[in-house]
UniProtKB/TrEMBL annotation:
It comes from Crateriforma conspicua. The lineage of its organism: Bacteria, Pseudomonadati, Planctomycetota, Planctomycetia, Planctomycetales. InterPro entries: Alkaline_phosphatase_core_sf, Sulfatase, Sulfatase_N. Belongs to the sulfatase family. Pfam families: Sulfatase. Its EC number is 3.1.6.6. Residues 65-347 form the Sulfatase N-terminal domain. GO terms for molecular function: arylsulfatase activity; choline-sulfatase activity. Keywords: Hydrolase. This is Choline-sulfatase. SUPFAM superfamilies: Alkaline phosphatase-like. It is an enzyme of class 3 (hydrolase). It comes from the Bacteria. Gene3D superfamilies: Alkaline Phosphatase, subunit A (3.40.720.10).
Length: 534
């Protein structure tokens, strides 16, 4: 049996242990091993039905605040309250001014499905077997380990009306879920809080397209510019674009970034619409509003990778009990929104949950945050990182592979085509060439104060060997204590199951056959490299 990495194959009939008790402290101790359940054939999860019978005590609270999450896709912290100067984002800025802004918030996974699987459970995706992008969608399923359950279910059990939608709300159409495990859609009561009972508090997830509004090429760029002109009265000009030094001044890269900035402006406008609705309904003062993106910008070094462009996100929270104008510089993880939201509602945070209530009076700030990248679509990978306020350590478990492995999703974007063209033509400087290395360093270490763009790898620098050893130890301890399931690579049967489901839409009569052939070619390459031990 081929396994996608250097680990031995194991039986697919392995049964799943329950999740052992763990503590919500910086060490995140986990006793025992957690695995995902791989089911050969269709299955429906019983977890939610089982969980609904468990008690969920609530702490006394004079009021039960509503909770609203606004979570756009594919967007870094390019908001003016975070220092962006090319555009203005008055609504997110106002939200921050009226509450707390976290300057160092990081996702534990730089791609949507794994990120969402983590925040909706308050668990590291690597601990619950949800670490491969869009996994468990085919014949072979993934079940959550007991007693883990979804945040909306916990709100539901506490008497909240739970919703998930896009924005603007499209009637009964649910917003993006994209969870990598079996779950019961009944954890959401509806798509709009207006359907709740009189006086009933609500928990609402609002999912927006965010950076995806810019599309992947010139047609998408034109579309978002037109939307910005129509809605906001202007478009973002290319003359204000400030690219990070690892991207070249290629016309398409510049144009794409200007379109991305307009997607940020449109997202900000949507935030304003949500806030205005809460004001119009007279419930803004008793509603905790949380704004966070699912990961960074979709770009060569952003989405799917563990550099800050991929994992650093905005996190702004405003609502009852939060002192306006608060700015925090401690490092926090995106999964923490689960615990803090439960805490704000007076719902006891489960002891199994790895998320921490970062708004609690007794919260002890972390000194490090962690992130993981595994398979994304057809592209097999295995990367881990640990970040403190001042340093980032990245471990590449497949260093023999190129940084930019073939990936049909990313390679179809005009910006990747442009970057490859200039690479082939020898027009990139040494910094811009880093992403085109044929292999990767096994370890990367960056001094973030001196090198915020993570360009100068210090892993081999004699002067940083003590820091390297410290960061290695931190990561090793985290992988062990949280039972990182990525240490056992995805087996061929699960990979094939996921790829069959991924290819299904392209195999339909109206599917993109050219894109399908690229995916199939990449799948064959992944299997070839796995067989070669690459």
């Amino acid at each position: 049996m081929i396994r996608f990495g250097c680990f031995p194959a194991s039986s697919l009939s392995t049964t799943i242990p329950t999740l052992a008790k763990m503590t919500r402290n910086p060490a995140l101790s986990l006793i025992g091993w957690i695995t995902c359940c791989l089911i050969a054939g269709p299955a429906i999860a019983d977890n939610e039905a089982t969980a609904s019978t468990q008690s969920n005590p609530t702490r006394p609270s004079p009021t039960r605040p509503n909770i609203v999450w606004i979570i756009p896709d594919d967007m870094s912290a390019n908001f003016s309250c975070y220092g962006e100067t090319a555009i203005e984002t008055p609504n997110v800025d106002a939200l921050a001014a009226g509450g707390v802004q976290f300057n160092r918030a990081f996702v534990t996974a730089p791609v949507c499905s794994t990120c969402r699987s983590a925040f909706i459970t308050g668990m590291y995706q690597t601990s619950i077997g949800a670490h491969h992008h869009r996994s468990g969608r085919g014949e072979r399923k993934i079940e959550l380990p007991a007693p883990v359950r979804l945040v909306p279910k916990m709100f539901q059990d506490a008497g909240y009306y739970t919703t998930i939608s896009g924005w603007p709300n499209r009637g009964k159409r649910m917003g993006k879920t994209d969870y990598n495990f079996q779950w019961d859609a009944s954890v959401y009561d509806g798509t709009d809080w207006s359907e709740r009972k009189p006086g009933q508090p609500f928990f609402a997830q609002i999912q927006t397209k965010g950076g995806k509004m810019r599309g992947k090429d010139a047609s998408g760029w034109s579309r978002i510019h037109e939307q910005a002109e129509k809605t906001l009265g202007s478009r973002t000009g290319e003359d204000v674009v400030q690219l990070p030094p690892y991207y070249p001044q290629h016309p398409d890269v510049i144009t794409d970034w200007a379109a991305y900035l307009d997607s940020v402006r449109m997202t900000d406008h949507m935030v304003g619409e949500v806030l205005q609705r809460l004001e119009d309904e007279g419930i803004r003062e008793n509603t905790l509003v949380l704004f966070m993106t699912d990961h960074g910008i979709s770009h060569a070094r952003g989405k799917q990778f563990l550099y800050d462009e991929g994992i650093h996100v905005p996190l702004v929270i405003s609502g009852p009990g939060i002192r306006p104008g608060t700015v925090r510089d401690d490092v926090v993880e995106h999964i923490d929104i689960a615990a803090l939201s439960l805490g704000a509602a007076g719902i006891e945070v489960p002891t199994w949950m790895q998320a921490q209530d970062i708004l609690a009076d007794d919260y002890q700030p972390r000194d490090a945050v962690f992130a993981a990248r595994d398979r994304c679509d057809e592209t097999v990978d295995h990367i881990r990182s640990v970040r403190t306020a001042d340093f980032k350590y990245i471990r590449n478990f497949l260093p023999q592979r190129p940084h930019l492995q073939p990936c049909a999703y990313k390679d179809a974007k005009a910006i990747l085509i442009a970057l490859r063209q200039w690479h082939d033509a020898g027009k990139l400087d040494a910094t811009q060439e880093l992403i085109f290395r044929p292999t990767r360093p096994a370890e990367e270490l960056y001094d973030l104060a001196a090198d915020p763009h993570e360009i100068n790898n210090l892993a081999d620098d004699p002067g940083y060997q003590d820091k390297l050893a410290e960061m290695r130890s931190r990561l090793d301890r985290w992988m062990e204590e949280t039972a990182d399931q990525g240490r056992q690579m995805e087996d061929a049967a699960m990979y094939d199951s996921n790829m069959e489901e991924y290819l299904r839409k392209f195999r339909k009569p109206d599917g993109d056959k050219a894109h399908m052939r690229v995916i199939e070619s990449n799948i064959a390459l992944m299997k070839k490299w796995a067989a070669e031990g690459k």
